[in-house]
Amino acid sequence: MAALSAFVNRHQVIAFGAFFAVFPFLMPYKALASQVLIFGLFALGFNLLYGYTGLLSFGHAAYYGLGAYGTGLALAKLKVGSIWLGLAAGPALAVLGGAAIGFFCLRRRGIYFAMLTLAFAQLLYFIAFHLADVTGGDDGLRGIPLLPIHLFGWKIDLEGSLAFYYFSFVIVWLAVAVLKRILDSPFGAVLQAIRENGDRASACGYDVNRVKHLSFVFSAFFAGLAGGLDALRLAVVPVESLYWVTSGQVVIMTLLGGAGTFFGPFVGAGTYLVLGDRLAVFTERWPLVIGLIFMAFVLFLPKGIWGTLVDRLPHRQAAGVKP
Amino acid sequence: MTSMTRRTFLAATGATAGAMATQGMFPAVLRAQGEPIRIGCPLPLTGPFAALAADMQRGAQLAQDELNAKGGVTGRKVEVLFRDDELKPAVGAQRTKELIENQKCQFIVGGLAAHVQMAINEQTKKSKVLFISTSQSDEISAKPDTSPITFHEALNPTITSRVMGTWTAQNLGKKWWIIYADYAWGKQNNAVLQDTITKLGGTVLGATPYPLGSAEFSAHLPKIQAAKPEVLMSVTPGADNIAFLKQARSFGMDKTMKLAQPLLWISYLKEGGPELYADIYGSINWYWELQDTIPSAKKFVEASMKKFNIPPGDYGAYSYSGVLEVARGVELAKSTDSEAVANALRKNPVYDHYKGKEWWRPCDNKAMQDMWIVKGRGPGKTKGDWGLMDIVTKIAADEKYDRTCAEKGLA
Amino acid sequence: MDVSLAAILPQIFTGLVLGMLFVLLAIGLSLIFGLMTVVNFSHGALYMLGAYCTVFLLGFTRNFWVALVIAPLMIGTFGLLIERFLIRRLYGRSPDDPLLLTFGLSLVLVEAAKLIWGKIGLTLDPPKELGGALNLGFMAFPAYRLFVIAVTIAVLIALWAFLTRTNVGLIIRAGSRDPLMVRALGIDLNRIWLLVFGIGCALAGLAGALAGPMRGAYAEMGVTMVIESFVVIVVGGMGSLLGAVVAGLLMGQVVGMTTLFAPKLAEIMVFVVMALVLLVRPSGIFGEAGLAE
Predict the structure, then answer these.
(1) Which residues of A touch B122 (CB under 8 A)?
(2) What is the DSSP string of chain C?
(3) Quick one: B116 exposed, middle or buried, by C-beta within 10 A (0-12, 13-18, 19+)?
(4) DSSP labels for B56-67?
(5) Which DSSP state fits B337?
(6) Above 60 in pLDDT, residue B396?
(7) Which of B246, B271, B275 to mutate to test binding with chain C, by most C CBs within 10 Å of its CB?
(8) What is residue B49's DSSP assignment?
């Protein structure tokens, strides 16, 4: 057990790959596996900002939504012929949004910051709602084609649930590897220093505001990539993607899984989505159950599932990032 | 997923034939052997339209029971599986995927909110599964959303607003004010209402959008009062309808103008009460008192009263008809292949399940159907728990009320 | 713009009614935040429960006035329980935690309401005496809405008297200025915080009870109200009661006027104002710099 957890701790990206390679076969149905992967990525982005930098954003749906609309508009309206271009457009738009909104929100701290992020997300929601000619309004942006990919001369059709899963898996895996690089770098260390004590980090000579802003932008990138993938998965971009409920969901997922841990976001996303999916078949009141579980976690298990597990399991503390 | 291969088709019919041969002596119910026919039904069981969704669920259940009592369809049992789409497109899409992939549903009937059914439709098109939409929407039967396996059972804003608009202009007054929910359904109704009244020589004194679900109308009402219209047309769905009527009455507007709306929903008449809905005009696709004049209506109402002690409402009627149409298509095509069923329905488009003759228009798979103009009964005039409306007149089905196929982008 | 004076004046009144609801909610939020630095996300859910409780009590007692008095007290008591058993556990932890907890609580309360009272929502009628419309000369304005304005003003006066004329009120104001000093003076802040949380929740319940006859009671009614109330206290200055009043009334007018002149922008305006205020005068109109930054 200790050896396994040590391995997982030291080779996080490989462990991630190994687990998620077989993940679809552990799920009741394949489409759910894709959803877990994509929302896990969304939570990963959020976690970078909240868990590692210590900034609670209550409006992260904005970047997920911008990512979804970016990809959706590129493929459905601008009709770019390549799925790669379409997918890239999503996080590109999200990064722009993150840079702009981050600039405004970071002028304040603490609760003000959280409320500002919420306000901007709601603003985007209402804009998307009313710009119906561009975004489809509340009917959603429809008709997003899932173009096949061309690899080494072969055409791979992504329509099947399993094919789409592995396509998303490769992309998310790459994103996870990038995140690991970020966290292991000096930049990542400064992020965590800021989370612990922003003033001290500033006293050490770091440009705290610039680092926070960069973290915000990176976070938006991951959330936007998740949004783009989701646009491909659903073939529509519902306007609810920008709604505060979506922001709340990613907060719950991250907390459930374990904020500030590497795997926490995916554990949280998986738990939330699978629980919600299976409960929903039995009762209409499943949000009540999830709400109660969430409250219990805030009160008694603030480290989340993975965070608590990591603390309890015996392992040698490797230098760098917590598992 | 569900395009049946020749082998699986033969296997299914073979199994059924064999089962029937050996059990020829047994009652019809036991003879429905073999894999059941599964119809997925996503609907907003939670959320502001929950009452309508509950009605829809009952209607589908009645259809399922009726079919199984007759021995199923092509000898196979029918199962309707309900999933809550929470009125959210992403959830609707996800649940549809689950129904198709996990539960192996061969058909989908359902959808109540327009934006959710769009998302459902994208999934059913991808998986090549027949979808009969029971949601009010103009786009679902037009390009680019429609497809050969997308059918639309419910009314749409064009039809309802043209019908209600015409009747109102001829009977209630020609100077209108329109207040409408600022989202797709509301905007579509508003556009058609304005077009209709202007073509009939009337005037629109003003049109006020309001944010859907925000029950605060008092901000708009003084302006409307000041303009003194003859008719106030409200396009206020769901719970907004009750809040709107309350507030309009509290401002005394019912005394100075006629209040009308494109649709009246019996679930909300029940909740709001006769005082609130007295003399409110609207149109409807179905009302249970039609049983007095239409035999298929009587049968439908009796079945519902027997099982639920509640008469079926508008959305219950849509889902009832939708499930029965799937069954009819499967019987005709002798297959559960969606494309085959769709073609069979187009070849035999006429049906009558609960209110008289309906038919599928071939170019856009749109159900053409009769409608009625109704009016809320005041306090003291209601009959029992559900006798809440007076039928004013019938508007017979006519393709001219909807957009032409050319207008929809389908020649 | 085709808008006449006859439409503007009633709109101002309508905006005033909406503003009054905002004020009640914002004051509750502001009291709680100013004293305890806790952001109560469940405020909207408590507002909703205030409306439902009123319906429930009305069915019980058949007397609207009794229901109107008791419902806020019930919600206030519920607030005491929330503070004592839930929020108190979080003191000393990250300041984000109470926000997260009350966010979860709001989800639970909304679902619980649907479980108890059904998914559709309930109708609530004002008492017969307030049912009609008062002819003010230039327009007929619903009597019940004038009642709402009157009640809110009365409650605000009572609250002001409480905070400025009583010992407890003094402690509350001191506590939000300088909690450390108040503690050093030997005053049990725990009891004060309990009381303040209860009062804040009672005000939310009152707002819901007043709103019920205008809009009906339904589970999601508090959802947008809580976000808009946050905007109000951010604009007014978090922790400032005068700010809550001024900003609440201001926002009511913003919504009212935008609805009249540019209905499509009505929802967005609230956030635009907030963003502007935060950029230009970050602590809000009456807020003190440095509070919870």
Answers:
(1) 142-143, 234-236
(2) ----HHHHHHHHHHHHHHHHHHHHHHHHHHHHHHHH----TTHHHHHHHHHHHHHHHHHHH--HHHHHHHHHHHHHHHHHHHHHHTGGGGTTS-THHHHHHHHHHHHHHHHHHHHHH-SS-B-----GGG-SEEE-SS-EEEHHHHHHHHHHHHHHHHHHHHHHHSHHHHHHHHHHH-HHHHHHTT--HHHHHHHHHHHHHHHHHHHHHHHHHHH-B-TTHHHHHHHHHHHHHHHH-TT-HHHHHHHHHHHHHHHHHHHHH-GGGHHHHHHHHHHHHHHHSTT-SSPPTTTT-
(3) buried
(4) HHHHHHHHHHHH
(5) -
(6) yes
(7) B246
(8) T
Name all domains of chain C by residue range, CATH numbers in brackets.
5-280 (1.10.3470)
Q: Is residue B230 pLDDT above 90, yes or no?
A: yes
Mutation target among B183, B208, B223, B276 for the C interface, most CBs of C within 10 A: B223
Rounded-to-integer distance, Cα C26 and Cα C45, Å: 14
Continuous segment of H or E residues that includes residue B78:
strand B78-84
Smallest CA-to-CA distance from C204 within C8, C47, C4, C34 is with: C47
β-strands C140-142, C133-135: how paired? Answer: antiparallel
Q: Provide the β-strand partners of residue A118.
A: none
Question: What's residue B19's pLDDT?
Answer: 38
Q: Which chains touch C (3+ CB pairs under 8 A)?
A: A, B
pLDDT of residue B28: 42
Q: Which residues of C touch A119 (CB under 8 A)?
A: 231, 271, 274-275
Is residue A182 a contact partner of residue A44, using CB atoms and an 8 Å limit? no
Say whether residue A251 is in contact with chain C using an 8 A CB cutoff: yes
Among candidates B46, B88, B122 on the partner chain, residue whose Cβ is nearest the Cβ of A142: B122
B283 - beta bridge partners?
A: B263, B373
Q: Running DSSP on this structure, what letter comes out for residue B176? A: E
Amino acid B163: pLDDT:
95
CB A321 within 8 A of CB A183: yes
Residues of chain B with CATH 3.40.50.2300: 6-155+293-368, 158-284+371-401
The CATH label, of 3.30.110.40, 3.40.50.2300, 3.40.710.10, 1.20.120.450, for the domain at B158-284+371-401 is 3.40.50.2300
Which member of B46, B115, B126 has the closest CB to residue A238?
B115
Positions of chain A with pLDDT lower than 70, given as ranges: 1-2, 5, 314-323
CA A158 from centre of chain: 22
- The predicted structure's pLDDT at residue C122: 79
Q: What is the mean pLDDT of each run of 10 residues along chain C (293 residues)?
A: 64 87 93 85 94 91 90 96 92 86 93 84 76 68 86 94 89 76 80 91 95 83 84 84 91 86 79 82 72 43
The pLDDT value recorded for residue C139 is: 65
Mean of the per-residue pLDDT values for chain B? 87
Q: Which residue among A35, A238, A281 places its CB closest to the CB of B119? A: A238
pLDDT of residue A157: 84
The CATH fold assigned to A2-312 is ABC transporter involved in vitamin B12 uptake, BtuC (1.10.3470)
pTM for this entry: 0.84
Residue ranges in B49-204 assigned as alpha helix (H): 50-69, 89-101, 114-127, 157-171, 184-199
Are B114 and A139 within 8 A, CB to CB? yes
Comparing C-alpha atoms, which of B127, B89, B90, B91 is closest to residue B108? B127
Taking domain B6-155+293-368, whether its CATH number is 3.40.50.2300 is answered by: yes
pLDDT greater than 70 at residue B12: no
Contact between A179 and A44 (Cβ < 8 Å): yes
More confident position, B221 or B309: B309
Q: How far is B321 from chain A (nearest CA, A)?
A: 25
